[in-house]
Each structure stands twice: as structure tokens, then as C-alpha cells.
Design a protein that fits this description.
The protein is of the alpha/beta class. It is 41% helix and 22% strand. A five-stranded parallel β-sheet has the order 2-1-3-4-5, sandwiched between helices. A four-stranded antiparallel β-sheet has the order 6-7-8-9, covered by helices on one side. Strands 10-12-11 form a three-stranded antiparallel β-sheet.
Length: 224
């Protein structure tokens, strides 16, 4: 499961990232609302944990942007504001839950688990482009019924491309798919992973899905 945590208190952000990572989650951690929007614009998350009071753009701004863009990722607000009017404002914007600071990590974990259980009942974890099918839950990929084995980072890059099928994804956006896309010895990391994916996804098949958009980046499409 993949989480986005946006919190401007650095110490709390580091603690939450460490605790959720140890619990088995994939975590992207950012310290302001503007960066949170950048991550949400190119990566699919299972839950977003947003601090209400953040620099540049606050949690309300981020949530408003998400819902305008039809991003239905569940959102849990962390806030020092305990007034009813503040909670109502967030809920009207589309927040799914609130937790007042200070809080126990065990309670936050329980609330995240509840949001994930609720989401799993309503959201399909399968993405399809042409005959290529990616299952986000099972972490499997197949094309024309043939199983394709990918590394974790290959899977993350392919997932981002498929979530934005038909759109050009810049190298910068693809580099941000994972907080740790590292491949020692290469500076053109995205090109390396695209090459790996093409070898597995496209080369064995007549129809090529991964396209290069010269000067911009890459896209995946199944209608050409």
C-alpha cells in the first residue's frame, strides 16, 4: 500500500515515515502543500495524510485541488484545530477522516487501516491498456494472458505510465514515481527503466505500447 504524508513539522514527518515504512507501507513524505500536489499529480496513492496548516498551500487547498481533478484517494487530515467549524470545512471539501494533534500512532494506523478496507470494497485495483493488465493489489502484470515479471521499480514506472495512459509523462515526473529511483552508475535513470520495460512489455509482441515523445518524455497508449 502506498501513502503520501504531507506535514510541515519535520520531526513528526520523519517519525511517521519511519513508522509506516516499518509497518510495510510505501511512503512518500513531503513538507508543504505545493509539493504534495506535484506528487499527487503523477502518482496514485491508497491514502493521503495531510496536515491542515502547511506552507505554500495548506491541506484544504490540496484537498480542493484533488477533488477538482477527480482524484478520489481517501484523505485523512492531521490538525491542531479542534473546532467543529474546521472539521466541517474539511469534510465538505471531501476529507474522509480527521485526527487531532497530539495523537497516538496506533490510532492513526487504525484509522488508515479502516480507510483502506473501505476503499478496497469500492475501487478496482486493475488498470488496463490494450491487452496489458496491471493489478495494483497483487503486484502482477500480464499481456495477452502472458505473465510478465517486473522488479519493484519497473512496476512503479509502468503503473505511473498506465495511470496516465495517453498522456506524456516527463522524465522528471517519472523520476518522482518513487522517492528512491536509484540505479548506481546511470544518470539517465528513467531511460534505463523504460528500456527494461520495453524489453519485457513490447519486444515479445507486435503492437508496441510504450512511446517516446521526443524532447518531452514517454507515454503508454493502446489506441495507435
Amino acid at each position: 500500500m502506498k501513502l503520501l504524508i504531507a506535514e510541515d513539522q519535520f520531526q513528526l514527518l520523519e517519525i511517521l515515515k519511519e513508522r509506516f515504512t516499518k509497518a510495510g507501507y510505501v511512503v512518500d513524505a513531503v513538507s508543504n502543500g505545493e509539493t504534495a500536489i506535484d506528487f499527487l499529480d503523477h502518482t496514485a496513492y491508497d491514502v493521503a495524510i495531510l496536515d491542515v496548516m502547511m506552507p505554500r498551500k495548506d491541506g484544504y487547498d490540496v484537498l480542493h485541488w484533488m477533488r477538482q481533478r477527480k482524484i478520489d484517494t481517501p484523505v485523512l487530515f492531521l490538525t491542531a484545530k479542534d473546532q467543529v467549524v474546521d472539521r466541517v470545512k474539511g469534510l465538505k471539501l471531501g476529507a474522509d477522516d480527521y485526527l487531532i494533534k497530539p495523537f497516538a500512532f496506533e490510532e492513526l494506523m487504525a484509522r488508515i487501516d479502516a480507510l483502506l478496507r473501505r476503499r478496497q470494497k469500492t475501487v478496482s485495483n486493475t488498470i488496463q491498456v490494450a491487452d496489458l493488465i496491471l493489478d495494483r493489489s497483487a503486484k502482477t502484470v500480464e499481456r495477452s494472458g502472458q505473465a510478465i515479471v517486473l522488479t519493484k521499480k519497473e512496476f512503479n514506472v509502468l503503473e505511473a505510465l498506465m495511470l496516465h495512459a495517453g498522456e506524456t509523462m516527463s522524465r522528471d515526473r517519472l523520476e518522482m514515481v518513487s522517492s528512491s529511483l536509484e540505479y548506481e552508475g546511470y544518470s539517465n535513470i528513467v531511460d534505463v527503466y523504460i528500456r527494461f520495460l520495453r524489453k519485457k512489455i513490447d519486444e515479445p509482441f507486435s503492437k508496441k505500447l510504450i512511446q517516446t515523445v521526443r524532447g518531452f518524455g514517454y507515454m503508454i497508449r493502446g489506441d495507435q
